[in-house]
Amino acid sequence: MTQAEKEQENGKEKDKERDKEKEKEQQRGVKRPIAPAAIPETLQEQIQSNFIIVVHPGSRTLRIGRATDTLPVTVPHVIARRHKQSGQPRFEDAWLLREGLNKPESNEQRQNGLKMVDQAIWSKKMSNGVRRTPVSAEQARAYNCQIRPAILDSSSRVKWTNTSHHPPYIVGEEALYVNPSDCYNIHWPLARGQLNIHSGSGGSLTAVLADLETIWSYIIQKHLEIPLKDLKYYRCILLVPDIYNRQHVKEIVNMLLLNMGFSAIIVHQESVCATFGSGLSSACVVDVGDQKTSICCVEDGVSHRNSRLCLAYGGSDVTRTFFWLLQRAGFPYRDCQLTSRLDCQLLQHLKETFCHLDQDISGLQDHEFQTRFPEAPAFLYQIRLGDEKLQAPMGLFYPTTFGIVGQKMTVLQHRSQGDSEDPHDEQYLLTTQNKQDQSSKSAADRKAVCRPGGCLEGEMSCQGRMGEMSDMPRGCGSGVGASVGGGGDMELGPAQGECLIGAGDVEEPLSTHLSRKTAIISQFESKALGLDKAILHSIDCCASDETKRKMYSSILVVGGGLMFHGAQKFLLHRIINKMPPSFRRLVDNVEVITRTKDMDPRLISWKGGAVLACLDTTQEMWIHQREWQRFGVRMLRERAAFV
């Protein structure tokens, strides 16, 4: 027998022995290790950025484009849907109007807010050291009431959108110019950063998601020139608010992967993407949008959960307040109505053109503006304005000026209520903590009760029973707290925020404990914080002094709601004046950044999403369509870069 034949025989004998061992193991019930799942081929391929679409949905504007595009496609986030039956009542989502404006206290609150604004304007000296001379609305009114418009052209050259071919829906700019007499409902699918779910026509979750899918599909086909059947070759990066509704995010991801057919998706927060887009490693991100203002401290690509705040006001509230001030000053365009889409567009334009935050600009000044509406001549109006141009944007710092009564004005990050599809979420982890740890904490609590002094007892019950107080509004020891008061400001400092809830009898039932916690949070959320106070509160909630120092030295303002001349200098002055004295010594340089790299602040978050697409570290964050079909919302918990 040759050497080769011997080796062949030995190999056969070894195979037989292995087979016998397997049979014996199966008989004994021994489990063999499961082979690791093969990595999908799509992961092994080099992902091309031009096959990644970045979607940044806003309450008023949608920004969408390939990750390789210099600028995204920017369109009004609106859809007009044709009535299914003739004679159906017409419905239109409000643009500048909102709940809480027509309460009996609204006008009084507005006037009180305006008094505070006027006091703030007068108290700050101009750069030449002289105080501003207040200009009353009556001085401008006397002139404006005499103004009559001049006809520029007999035809405005603006036309209503052609609906003669009865399209089932119209999207974007064209939807704004649908004639009110046509049989179409107008819907804005997002409001204040969340899905616009309401009791009116088209306000159900299904209807809102259908509107989103229709708008996004239309823009992808028309502007990006990608057929919907080819989306299986594309991936999507979706930007969501810092304080998000987990159920809403789940439904949108479901729509993108299963309905529209994207092959994979990454979900990330707007604030973190804003730091990527601006090239900053750490920043306190202040995103002033059209309907909401969100503030969050981001450090090395991680959003600090405790620091997240969402204020339920934005640029549209400034626009509405500017209209109220214009009326006080005798606005010469007397047919202007907040219920008209085209008038709202005009007011938005006037705010962006005239308003500022430069206190060196004072006195009465003459301006002019044009109106161009369908089926009407083009008119030219003269208008004289004084402090109105400064008073309106200062409403962001004195939100009582907006006159909103009985609405939740400050939103904090709450724990998710859980999802039936994801039983092993953080609720599960909290309720299945190690029993030994719990018993040791209970023993420590009992010892604390026996000791003299009640403060320790309150602290122990706060820590032992509640675990993590991350969803409480709190000041973190620098003495700023959060102003939650109306007339008499109430400060929510460390005592109220952290240990007031835990103080008292250790044997208090958990349900009572939670209800007291909920009451304090509700009280905090019902008050409107000014933008500067909200920034200070957010920074104050960071864990360490070193992190706070980083945030004070890098306050990044994004979004289109604070794009006023002089805004950077104005905000910087207010932050420095109100920051805790202890930090004035520690922080070398407080910096407010409003135009990083000379980029449009409205596009920074989208640009950050495009940067995210190019990073090697994001490869493990992709959720693939097959994974979503199999595991559902659990994939968000496993793959998202935030809790």
TrEMBL record:
What CDD domains does the entry give?
ASKHA_NBD_Arp8-like
Q: Which SMART domains match?
A: ACTIN
| SUPFAM superfamilies cross-referenced by the UniProt entry | Actin-like ATPase domain
Q: Where is the composition biased (Basic and acidic residues)?
A: 1-28
Chain intervals for the UniProt region annotation (Disordered):
1-37
Which intervals of the chain form a coiled coil? none
> Highest taxon of the source?
Eukaryota
Q: Which family does it belong to?
A: Belongs to the actin family.
Stated name of the protein: Actin related protein 8
